[in-house]
């Protein structure tokens, strides 16, 4: 039996042109043993979704190598409708998690999630669907950066560049759980907020020289969620999820090494002991990392705004201002219907 459902998909041409509300076919046959079928309740959106839509190589792929309509989104929360015997879940379970970037697609009414390739956990009963969907990607990113710096924090001093970013706020929270002293960059409008997430001090990136303030603090490590080069060399370990680029909408993470030989030389130089240790990383899909988020108090789950399903384009426009505080979440509206044939 098959049907169709509403889904946000993208084709070629970059955001916003590529993003469209579509009707896509939907197979309602039995799931495989490691899969679950989830009725989506909410999905959050991330800069990477826009970056993938605008990825230069993707738009030039021949049609046989790329499906014409790709799914959009990775984070989701929802109810398990059907569970394979080896999935670890049962019908009726309330879950949230993250699916792989490719082929991607959580901005749709139902999703099939392969539990071997995705990270899925039970939703705490006191979290809303929107709160649960807001966490996986940014929490896993923050947690991965902490893993990357842990062995370098000898004097307990950490700088987080981009303290009010969705990833940055959780990096601060996790760093404070380890008892480290955290100084974070943010604008003055976010100072109180960043302190409420645990930062001991802040640097206003709009009015002061961030490198000067960072140098004065003398951190063991710098975690960068903003991008750029101005604080390179100011700590013995520098971990970035963005790389040297400073715009939000072009691809970041490990891919950036491919077209930036300077970053590659920096990383190799650090490994050879010729300079500070430097790595540009991608988040890790680790179940144990996402399990840790379950102890996060609900008041520390920060949501900037919630949009109805048919307003996903507006949601993306909000996200790419680069000045949101917390996650932009899209909820499944009651107007969305699956039609079965
Ligand atoms: N490699 C990976 O695996 C990975 C994973 C996740 C995210 N990322 C990347 O990490 C970056 C952050 O993502 P996100 O979702 O956390 O971002 P976000 O929540 O959209 O970040 C928005 C926040 O950044 C702050 N900000 C903007 N410019 C700043 C600056 N120059 N200095 C300090 N703060 C600044 C803004 O504060 P104001 O409004 O006060 O300016 C705003 O609160 C993105 O580039 C994303 O693509 C990479």
Structural commentary:
With 341 residues, this protein is of the alpha/beta class. It contains 10 helices and 17 strands. It has 2 domains: 179 residues, Medium-chain alcohol dehydrogenases, catalytic domain (Quinone Oxidoreductase, Chain A, domain 1, Alpha-Beta Complex), CATH 3.90.180.10; 143 residues, NAD(P)-binding Rossmann-like Domain (Rossmann fold), CATH 3.40.50. The strands form 3 sheets. Strands 3, 5, 6, 7, 8, 15 and 16 form a 7-stranded mixed beta sheet that branches. Strands 11-10-9-12-13-14 form a 6-stranded parallel beta sheet, with helices on both faces. Strands 1, 2, 4 and 17 form a 4-stranded antiparallel beta sheet that branches. Helix 6 links the parallel strand 10 and strand 11. Helix 4 crosses helix 5. The protein is globular, with a radius of gyration of 20 Å. It starts with a strand and ends with a strand. The mean pLDDT is 93. The site of NADP nicotinamide-adenine-dinucleotide phosphate has 30 residues, from helix 1, helix 4, helix 5 and strand 10.
In angstroms, what separates the terminal alpha carbons? 7 Å
Number of strands: 17
Q: What structural class results from the helix and strand content?
A: alpha/beta
Taken from the alpha-carbon principal axes, the silhouette is: globular
According to CATH, what is the class of the largest domain?
Alpha Beta
The domain tally reads 2
């Amino acid at each position: 039996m098959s049907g169709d459902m509403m889904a946000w998909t993208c084709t070629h041409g970059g955001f916003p042109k590529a993003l469209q509300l579509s009707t896509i076919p939907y197979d309602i046959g039995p799931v495989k043993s490691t899969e679950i079928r989830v009725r989506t309740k909410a999905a959050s959106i991330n800069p990477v979704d826009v970056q993938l839509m605008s990825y230069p190589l993707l738009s030039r792929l021949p049609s046989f190598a790329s499906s014409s309509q790709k799914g959009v989104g990775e984070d989701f929360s929802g109810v398990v409708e059907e569970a394979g015997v080896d999935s670890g879940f049962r019908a009726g379970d309330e879950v949230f998690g993250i699916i792989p970037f490719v082929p991607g697609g959580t901005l749709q009414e139902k999703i099939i999630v392969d539990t071997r390739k995705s990270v899925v956990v039970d939703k705490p009963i006191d979290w809303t669907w929107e709160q649960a969907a807001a966490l996986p990607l940014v929490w896993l990113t923050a947690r991965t950066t902490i893993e990357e710096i842990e062995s370098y924090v000898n004097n307990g001093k950490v700088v987080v560049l981009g303290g009010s970013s969705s990833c940055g706020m959780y990096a601060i929270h996790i760093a404070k759980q380890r008892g480290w002293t955290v100084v974070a960059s943010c604008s003055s409008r976010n100072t109180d907020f960043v302190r409420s997430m645990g930062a001991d001090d802040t640097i206003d990136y709009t009015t002061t020289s961030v490198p000067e303030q960072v140098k004065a603090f003398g951190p063991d490590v710098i975690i960068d969620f903003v991008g750029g080069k101005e604080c390179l060399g100011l700590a013995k370990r520098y971990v970035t999820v963005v790389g040297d680029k400073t715009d939000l909408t072009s691809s970041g993470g490990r891919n950036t090494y491919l077209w930036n030989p300077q970053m590659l030389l920096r990383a190799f130089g650090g490994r050879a002991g010729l300079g500070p240790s430097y790595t540009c990383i991608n988040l890790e899909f680790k179940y144990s990392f996402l399990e840790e988020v379950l102890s996060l108090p609900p008041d520390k789950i920060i949501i900037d705004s919630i949009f109805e399903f048919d307003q996903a384009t507006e949601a993306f426009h909000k996200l790419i201002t680069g000045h949101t505080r917390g996650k932009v979440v899209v909820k499944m509206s009651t107007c969305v219907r699956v039609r079965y044939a």
